[in-house]
């Protein structure tokens, strides 16, 4: 269980002056979705909350302690990041890639234990990757690699998930599977904060929504108060048609 | 864990290969020594001539070759992870160029061997500091920026080297060219190289897993708890030191730093906890064998050892690359 808090935070977005300060708390069990058009700064916000890029002003606190005062290792023991882009200059197998999720918990001389291996295998199983575990990541499809990234984060067993478009490259079944996984993590007490492009996934799976406008304006609140068609039309500069399926709104570009 | 289970046999095999390469270097030469005679000499007995050959001539040179090979291969393995570029070698950042300019200058001035080594070391350090300073620039430091700075500085050193060669009198040219290709003829005091190699290897071993994570990119590494900047600067400093000492000992021997870590990765996978010590053993053995060939193939002529490392390394490397997935 851990709480991630932004206090008077202004995200540093290159080429954009000023910026709106905001304060928010992401609590255990909550599922936050960040929505906004391309270039609004969703990834910058996510990286700032992870302490991976400096804020223009304000601070991010993890369980009441400023990220800048914590070691990366201490942060990584509680918080996992699923990146949108991945680098793999060197060959590595799927299992090796999932196992690096245990890095924050091992001392320099320690090797991965049987327990670590069990966690990694469990994560691969959970993302239907067990059959691929000896394959090189570079030989996988985009969607499979995306699932490997999520498996790495799952192996890290974080109290806080920061996921940048976790459903990128995934087919419909795996989109639902990944959202169900994150939902389950939240039910078990994790806090989930993710950038999404799909309004309907956000409407179905998130309980809090943060809207990021291209001019840097930002607002957030419980999902049902934020997913207002007029506001979303302004957000994306795109008119929308709305219907309801299984009690949840479904948005279709008009 | 699959990696751990193949670590020990691989390292043992490489260690045996290393010892065999050293024994061969002691036995082979203008006067051949049989295995029995060599064992007698190593046990402190045997003929006076053999004692003299082994302890005064062949052992210092073989140990220098082994340490230099180890230094270069370890430096190469570290640089490849640091720059996230499998094609990086210890010289990619201009260290050998700086060392060569120092060495050639002192040869041109007719200074002794010790001064040549000294100025090579100074040149290497100068180049390291220059690249370090310029790559910082005004913004943030990135591997691409470091690589570009290093490549351009290396090209600059290349021009200075050519200039020095054209200035040099004909009788000095062979010595200079030998130095540039890498030559162990004057490497008779292996102590320094070993005193650097062993502590640096011990220092990098516990960093292995962090380096594995760093190879996945700085953001991913930071997200997994690695203090990226200190690690990168530390690795840069250590790799530079290793290269500077290697170049000072034997001139700029090519290919060992590029090919050895790469070959090992193709065979053993990319776990730095295994690749770093394996590189030291394989690099040492390769350069020891190459140097033994260099001084015996066309005896009494001695070839520059760099020619042999290239002739051995290039086809082996191409074969492994061709065969790999």
Automatic annotation (TrEMBL), chain A:
Annotated PROSITE patterns: ABC_TRANSPORTER_1 (PS00211), ABC_TRANSPORTER_2 (PS50893)
Matches recorded under SMART domains = AAA
Q: Does the keyword Nucleotide-binding apply?
A: yes
Say yes or no: keyword Secreted present: no
Pfam families per record: ABC_tran
The chain positions of domain ABC transporter read: 4-239
Keywords in alphabetical order, please. Answer: ATP-binding, Nucleotide-binding
Q: Name one GO molecular function term.
A: ATP hydrolysis activity
Q: What does the record list as coiled-coil region(s)? A: none
Designated name of the protein: ABC transporter ATP-binding protein
From TrEMBL, chain B:
Its GO CC terms are: plasma membrane
- Looking at the UniProt entry, the stretches that span the membrane are 62-83, 90-109, 115-134, 146-167, 193-214, 235-262, 303-322
Signal peptide positions are none
Q: Which InterPro entries does the entry link to?
A: ABC_BtuC-like (IPR037294), ABC_transptr_permease_BtuC (IPR000522)
Keyword field contains Transmembrane: yes
What is its membrane topology?
Multi-pass membrane protein
Q: Does the keyword Transport apply?
A: yes
Name of the protein this chain belongs to: Transporter permease
One Pfam family this sequence matches: FecCD
Record-linked SUPFAM superfamilies: ABC transporter involved in vitamin B12 uptake, BtuC
Family, as annotated: Belongs to the binding-protein-dependent transport system permease family. FecCD subfamily.
Q: Which organism is it from?
A: Alcanivorax nanhaiticus
The protein's superkingdom reads Bacteria
Key words, A-Z: Cell membrane, Membrane, Transmembrane, Transmembrane helix, Transport
Q: State where the protein is found.
A: Cell membrane
């Amino acid at each position: 269980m851990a709480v991630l808090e932004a206090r008077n935070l202004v995200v540093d977005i290159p080429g954009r002056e000023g910026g709106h300060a905001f304060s928010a708390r992401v609590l255990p069990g909550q599922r936050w979705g960040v929505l906004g058009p391309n270039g609004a700064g969703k990834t910058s916000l996510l990286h700032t909350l992870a302490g991976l890029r400096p804020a223009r002003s304000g601070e991010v606190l993890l369980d009441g302690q400023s990220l800048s005062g914590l070691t990366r290792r201490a942060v990584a023991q509680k918080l996992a990041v699923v990146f949108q882009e991945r680098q793999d200059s060197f060959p590595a197998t799927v299992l090796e890639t999932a196992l690096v999720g245990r890095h924050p918990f091992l001392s320099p001389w320690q090797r991965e234990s049987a327990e670590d291996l069990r966690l990694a295998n469990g994560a691969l199983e959970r993302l239907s990757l067990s059959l691929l575990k000896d394959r090189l990541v570079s030989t996988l499809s985009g969607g499979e690699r995306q699932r490997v990234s999520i498996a790495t984060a799952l192996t890290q067993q974080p109290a806080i998930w920061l996921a940048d478009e976790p459903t990128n490259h995934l087919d419909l079944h795996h989109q639902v599977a990944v959202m169900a996984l994150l939902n389950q993590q939240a039910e078990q007490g994790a806090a989930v904060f993710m950038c999404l492009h799909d309004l309907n996934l956000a409407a179905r799976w998130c309980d809090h929504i943060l809207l990021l406008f291209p001019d840097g304006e930002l607002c957030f609140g419980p999902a049902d108060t934020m997913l207002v068609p007029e506001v979303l039309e302004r957000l994306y500069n795109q008119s929308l048609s709305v219907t309801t399926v299984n009690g949840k709104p479904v948005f279709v570009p008009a | 864990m699959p990696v751990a289970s193949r670590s020990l046999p691989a390292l043992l095999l490489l260690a045996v290969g290393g010892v065999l390469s050293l024994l061969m270097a002691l036995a082979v030469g203008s006067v051949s020594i049989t295995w029995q005679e060599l064992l007698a000499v190593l046990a402190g007995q045997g003929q006076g001539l053999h004692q003299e050959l082994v302890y005064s001539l062949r052992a210092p040179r073989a140990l220098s070759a082994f340490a230099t090979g180890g230094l270069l291969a370890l430096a190469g393995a570290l640089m490849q992870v640091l720059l996230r570029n499998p094609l990086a070698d210890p010289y990619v950042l201009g260290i050998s160029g700086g060392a060569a300019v120092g060495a050639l200058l002192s040869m041109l001035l007719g200074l002794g061997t010790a001064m040549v080594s000294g100025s090579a070391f100074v040149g290497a350090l100068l180049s390291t500091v220059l690249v370090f300073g310029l790559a910082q620039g005004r913004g943030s430091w990135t591997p691409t920026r470091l690589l570009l700075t290093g490549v351009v500085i290396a090209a600059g050193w290349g021009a200075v080297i050519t200039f020095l060669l054209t200035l040099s009198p004909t009788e000095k040219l062979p010595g200079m060219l030998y130095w540039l290709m890498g030559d162990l003829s004057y490497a008779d005091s292996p102590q320094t190289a070993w005193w650097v190699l062993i502590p640096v290897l011990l220092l990098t071993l516990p960093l292995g897993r962090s380096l594995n994570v760093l190879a996945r990119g700085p953001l991913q590494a930071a997200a997994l708890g690695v203090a990226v900047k200190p690690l990168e600067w530390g690795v840069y400093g250590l790799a530079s030191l290793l290269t500077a000492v290697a170049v000072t000992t034997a001139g700029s021997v090519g290919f060992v730093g590029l090919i050895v870590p790469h070959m090992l990765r193709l065979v053993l996978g990319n776990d730095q906890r295994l690749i770093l010590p394996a590189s030291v053993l394989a690099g040492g053995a390769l350069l020891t064998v190459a140097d033994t060939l260099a001084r015996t193939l066309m005896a009494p002529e001695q070839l520059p050892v760099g020619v042999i490392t290239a002739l051995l390394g290039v086809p082996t490397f191409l074969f492994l690359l061709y065969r790999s997935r």
